[in-house]
Amino acid sequence: MGESCVTIASRTNEKARLALSSFVHALAELEAYAIARIVLKDSKDPQLILLSPSIEPDLECLIDVPLPFAEDIRLYRFPPLDRIITMSGQTLTKHRNLPTDDLTHAMSAYVDAMDLSSFGKDDEGKLTEYMMIEDTYSPVLHRINQAIRRRAVQPNEPVQPPANILIKYSHPPDELIKAGQKQLKTLIDVADIKKVPPKAKGRRARDAIKPLSGLNVDALLSRENRSEIETANAIPEYKQALTLADSLPAIESASQQMGNIIRSLIEHSVGDSGHGQAMANLACMREELTDLEMPELYNSFMTRLKEEILEGKLGGDRREMWWEIKKGKLGLVDKIRCEVSEVTEEEAQEFYNVNKDIPVHWT
Q1: What is the pLDDT of residue 109?
Q2: CATH for 105-191, among 1.10.10.10, 3.40.50.300, 1.10.1600.10, 3.30.70.250?
Q3: Higher confidence at residue 145 or residue 210?
Q4: What gap in Å lies between CA 343 and CA 268, rounded to an integer?
Q5: Which residues pair with 56 in a beta bridge?
Q6: Residue 298 pLDDT > 50
Q7: pLDDT score of 361
Q8: Which parts of the chain fold into alpha helices (H)?
């Protein structure tokens, strides 16, 4: 229920060191533990701790751990693993969520084949445990100490690779893996494990809303398959093109047309007269490509659009349009918005920054 601590005597207090040493040896000889009360600081509640003696060649101490109280006990009830009890009280021993006898035997055989308790050999060649607790070390602590020592002695030299003894147990031995291949194949066959197919791009992340009547609205309206998207009706025609698209090139073509429309609106805008429609088209493009889990198309377009706006390639100084994009949070699609995106949240925030000043209008 808490962390373990070590209690030692002050090195300058011989009387305390002798008293603590006597107490530690007494507990060790009696093979007993002690229960004590400790108050760590003023005005703090006391704790009950269990004291365990520890005697090393250069250190004698007491290892203490906090004892739990009745209030610390948590009672959890879990359903049994070998049967299912229905709401009516019926007990089922065969169910799709319960392992079959063949699966249980296959798993047991695989576990036995991967046993480490007798995989190693001692100095006399006898079978013994492969990974003894006293022979395992923390690679992190030793690696940090190695890096500090290397930098102190050779500050300009790279840190040497870690010792083999530190990374020996980071991976299972190849011989053990090869020995369990037969049992593993049997387990895969019995469990009927199949590879999950990769997620196809161009599919909606959420299901399309179906009318309560169950009628095919698209068929009733007899929508035609438009190949060109018009500026005056860009948003509905763009959504229609994505809905009817049956391949990735079709989605890319529709998105390219929408991108050209957005550029044209910005370039031929008189003042900010076309910014509102361009922002609406941009928001639609961002949402649709995110739902299709193709954020790379939008991010690529937005990167080029930012360069064109800040470099004055869209009809002169259009930096105010970039300020509106930043205000509307229509920048890059990050991993928080779409998990398949390769843009991190920090990169998406950094994308809004520019080297040039952006005009700001106060209202």
Answers
A1: 92
A2: 1.10.1600.10
A3: 145
A4: 31
A5: 59
A6: yes
A7: 37
A8: 14-30, 101-113, 139-153, 164-167, 174-179, 181-191, 217-221, 234-244, 248-267, 275-291, 295-310, 319-327, 345-351
